[in-house]
Amino acid sequence: VQLVESGGGLVQPEGSLRLSCAASGSIFSIYVMGWYRQAPGKQRELVADITSGGSTNYADSVKGRFTISRDNAKNMVYLQMNSLKPEDTAVYYCKDSLGDWGKGTLVTVSS
């Protein structure tokens, strides 16, 4: 499975971004999909994940601000990020439940 992230960029604090992850493969719908992030000098951490049925899980630090969603028909996973903070600055990665990773997309929150 190939995963390709997009949508990162530079945004001001309290701004919004929507990340997308495009997945190859015909059985995408059975995967649990997740968004992870890695800030400079820190370990990679789970941001949010979503089951094939749409159940979601979020890190405490993003609850109420980020929303993960998926479109199984399009093999896509999304991360809507609102009220962004400088501490959200990181490379954001898409991952599936088989252990495949994308190459990441950089999100920088700065004024």
Provide structural commentary.
- By secondary structure, the chain is mainly β.
- The protein has no helices and 10 strands.
- The strands form 2 sheets. Strands 2-10-9-4-5-6 form a 6-stranded mixed beta sheet, with no helix packed on it.
- Strand 7 (66-71) and strand 8 (76-81) form a beta hairpin.
Which terms summarize this structure?
111 residues, mainly beta, 10 strands, six-stranded mixed β-sheet
Question: Secondary-structure map with pairings?
Answer:
Elements: E1 3-6, E2 9-11, E3 17-23, E4 33-38, E5 45-50, E6 56-58, E7 66-71, E8 76-81, E9 90-96, E10 105-109
Parallel strand pairs: 2-10
Antiparallel strand pairs: 1-3, 3-8, 4-5, 4-9, 5-6, 7-8, 9-10
- Percent of residues in helices comes to under 10%
Structural class: mainly beta
- The tally of strands reads 10
Radius of gyration: 13 Å
Summarize this structure briefly:
The chain is an all-beta fold. Helix content is 0%, strand content 48%. The mean pLDDT is 94.
